[in-house]
Design goal:
Layout lengths: L1 E5 L13 E9 L6 E3 L8 E10 L1 E5 L2 E5 L4 E6 L3 E4 L7 E8 L5 H11 L10 H14 L6 H24 L6 H13 L6 H8 L3 H12 L3 H19 L4 H7 L5 H12 L3 H6 L13
Antiparallel strand pairs: 1-2, 2-9, 3-8, 4-7, 4-9, 5-6, 5-8
């Protein structure tokens, strides 16, 4: 069974809009000659997001074989060195998919490819999967009737994938034990930590191994995470205390107020004095970094 809806809207055929190419559902069985070679397709450039709901398939990327099972997605560029197909060992392969042009979302897609890889596992109730299935149903019911709606469908999906990739990697419950412990210690002792050596010792790991592990798990280097904690504390003190800028700098662990001002501006876009006074900028009650 194949149910595929293609879209070509002249009202949004510019680089300023996302371009939905096709959305569909397929159920492949052994009596179908199903094989896509990413270097031989002529319909690109395209991005493919495909999600398996039952059965199994195979994805090969750069010579690496990825068995694709229920609950697993495919993210590939077309054209690129990949191919996907139904193996002889599989009774069928059923999946939803969406194809769209690189316009507008190329940098977002590159980030996704780096974070998630070509064959990520996604829960069936996750936002990207739900949006993919809703897009298919909308297409089937003829509810995608212009390029603006189609552009929104693509953008929503890519943003959902972005959010999923960030939440999956940044959720503390997914961090390795040494990283969780080090992060907790940073949050507790941020005033007194001054070097990568100090932080690595909290985890009992070498600087090199710890830095790599911490960055993979959190998206921050250990020093960036320490700075994040300090700036969050600085925001709270600026809003809710009468301490001077110099006192706040010392309170959160900076060696000088001038360096604190420089770092605060880099993270927030304002000096501490501008942030506290609220002049010429939106007044914040809280400020979150992630």
């Amino acid at each position: 069974m194949s149910d595929v809806f293609g879209f070509r809207f002249s009202d949004t055929q510019t680089e300023h809009f996302c371009q939905l190419f096709a959305v569909g559902y397929d159920r492949i069985t052994p009596d179908h000659a199903y094989h896509w070679d990413g270097l031989k397709r002529i319909d690109g450039p395209l991005y493919l997001f495909q999600y398996t709901v039952s059965g199994a398939g195979i994805l090969e990327t750069e010579g690496i074989i990825h068995p694709i099972q229920k609950g697993q997605a495919i993210l590939v560029d077309i054209p690129s060195n990949h191919r996907y197909y139904l193996p002889q060992s599989s009774s069928h392969w059923a999946f939803y998919f969406m194809l769209f042009r690189p316009s507008v979302i190329q940098s977002n897609w590159d980030q996704l490819a780096e974070k998630l890889g070509p064959a990520p596992v996604l829960p069936v109730d996750s936002a990207p999967v739900q949006l993919l299935q809703h897009a298919y149903q909308a297409a089937k019911q003829k509810q995608i009737t212009n390029g603006f709606q189609a552009s929104a469908v693509v953008y929503q999906l890519v943003m959902a994938l972005q959010q999923y990739s960030c939440s999956a990697s940044h959720s503390k419950t997914n961090w390795p034990g040494p990283v969780r412990e080090a992060a907790a210690q940073i949050e507790k002792h941020y005033r007194h930590l001054h070097s990568l050596n100090d932080i690595a010792q909290l985890a009992g790991l070498s600087k090199f191994h710890f830095t790599r592990l911490f960055h993979q798990a959190t998206g921050y280097t250990p020093i960036e995470y320490l700075t994040k904690v300090r700036i969050e504390q600085a925001v709270s003190l600026l809003l809710h205390s009468r301490l001077t800028i110099e006192d706040i700098a010392r309170e959160i662990g900076f060696s000088s107020s001038s360096y604190f001002i420089k770092v605060f501006r880099k993270w927030t876009g304002f000096s501490p004095g501008e942030f506290r006074s609220g002049r010429a900028l939106t007044s914040f009650s809280h400020l979150t970094f992630d």
